[in-house]
Fold:
Amino acid sequence: MTESTMKPPKKALTPVKWMREHLFSTWYNALLTVVVGYLVVTSVGPILNWALFDADFLGADASDCSGAGACWLFIDQRLNFFIYGFYPDELQWRVDLMFLLLAVAFVPQFIERFPARKWFGIFGMTGLPVIGYFLIPGGLFGLEAVESTKWGGLMLTLILAYIGILASLPIGILLALGRRSEMPIIRGLSVVFIEVWRAVPLITVLFMASVMLPLFLPEGMNFEKLMRALIGITLWQSAYMAEVIRGGLQAIPRGQYEAADALGLGYWRKMGLVVLPQALKLVIPGIVNTFIALFKDTTLVLIIGLFDVLGTVQSTVTDPAWQNVAVEGYVFVAFCFWIFCFGISRYSQNLERKLDTGHKT
Amino acid sequence: MKKQTVDSKPAGPKPWYDPRVRSLFFQVVAIAAVFWAGWTLVENTLSNMESRGISTGFGFLEETAGFGIIMSLVPYDATMSYGRTFWVGLTNTLLVSVMGIIAATLLGFLIGVARLSSNWLVAKVSLFYIEVIRNIPLLLQIFFWYFAVLGALPSPRQSIEVGGTMFLNNRGLYVPEPLTQDGFGLVWGALLVAIAAVVCIRIWAKKRQLATGQIFPTFKVGVAILVLLPVLAYFVAGSPLEWEVPALKGFNFGGGITIIPELAALWLALSLYTASFIAEIVRSGILSVSKGQTEASKALGLSNGLTLRLVVIPQAMRVIIPPLTSQYLNLAKNSSLATAIGYPDLVAVFMGTTLNQTGQAVEVVAITMAVYLTISLSISLFMNIYNRAVAIKER
Structure:
């Protein structure tokens, strides 16, 4: 924009004029404003009182909670369990280190002008899982082994979501390519795989993974529960991922495919060098949205007996030592998820705006 | 120099470079791999089941179930078969899905429109609702309603009374049950006649409008007929309806209709959660209709209501229907979270208790997955038919 082009003049509104325009423009709008305003005011007051002014933050045990407001003390006391599950106290630095690396890899993605932020992202997709693979379970390089049954809380939620999305990405790409393949049998197999997984609820998939997978495998070969859940989640997620990527593949104009053919590229080079880079860039927002959905769905693993962050809270709120802390517990979990999901969805919306080149019809 | 023969065929590619040969080869390999994997799975499963002493086949469906279910739409007791538990679970799943779809659609459209309201407060409250609800896991919301809200209700003896006929406590909501007496058939008959009459009026009004341009108030007249005729029949037949009011018997209420807290919590959570997604779909659908359309219809002299009904909504529906379908599918699939709070849906009853008692995992899981596949496919089919009806018609 040159300096000579001027923006339209800003409408200067006094508060009274603004209110007349936005709140009381017609008689029914005025009525609506009054009714909704009354409801908001009468509900916000008690909620604030409960959550902040009458709440108890400090103390040592349940007797320090007055009961007039929220007992945040409960969260404070059990925070360790909610974040690490049964992970041994003295080894928690490993998990902390992973949290730190996760932040190092992904916080730059939110900052537009961060130098070399692409490489931080690539580290998050490749180096981070490898480090995590050695660090969290231990057992190698003199690190004490921690069984997966001891993992839990927020850490487990993040592990499930992260591995679920990373592992489902390549399978999803293959399935999407398969669905658009010219070979009828490959296409048919991909369609059946995708549609069957997408039609069944995740809970049946998890049930199947925990009950039936041991039946399918040859005798003597068995995975631990977490691994079984991960297999189920990954297969289920890859079907959704395939559909997202297929959308991107369909959005690439035919000319690109034909140009690649004309250059004499084979199938895999055509896809890998020409089509997929463009298609994947187009569907990053879609992939992020799938990730948010998966992140929320990881709570379902508590039904097959894994202790994710909701599982740890659910198992604690029934503790007779604390009375009526269910709401506090749920609000805490809701807050954890909300922060992650809202932040990521804002990120994806930004990205969508940036990738929208205005060429769409 | 050798003279080139004119009729010599150009040398074809080597067979392993021929795309057709390659594609045939890959497909044969794919088929072989799938068959090998399937065969190995079946082999493994059979040998595993034999070593664990699990029987196979669908004979278990005839055996006596021997466990009670807290809620069933079809008659059920513990002496009935496992096959019957399947129907109980299926009907309960369908019940909560249909209830959820209706409530989520109504609420979602309301909030989606409110989000675009010119009223600042209403728009912001809707935005707050959408952003909070859709970023919190559904399972957490179900737990919240079930354990934190409905679990905190008073016991049956201290029930909350509504007008002396409805009672709310931690065992559920008790409402009077209508019992039809002799002669109620007349009311049903009147309703059928009314529906037929409305259809006829609609056809006639449309014909007249096309011929003369005069508009007949079909909607108002239709509602009047639909309400008045059955009410008239009701009084002519001598009020053949009695209400069975629930009453406190011992420790709990008896009589009337009971809405168990599991159903209420699941229904609330499913509807509120899905509504937040539907609201966003509706908003983007309405925004997708270009302003020129509204202005054109204003220029034609259509009123606000007619602009909305004849110009904006039909075009917005084209954008709304496909994502709305997947929300309905999600809701139906998410109803399986019932198992976490013990609402007896298909997963909880059939894949839970029945599977645990019989141990026949393969058959039970296969049946359950087939059911969800059928539900999903029928919702897509139904919505596709509707989508075709509203889709853009290009000539």
User: Anything to note?
Assistant: The domain at 82-158+260-390 of chain B is CATH 1.10.3720.10 (MetI-like fold). Chain B touches chain A through 54 residues (CB under 8 Å). Chain B has eleven helices and eight strands.
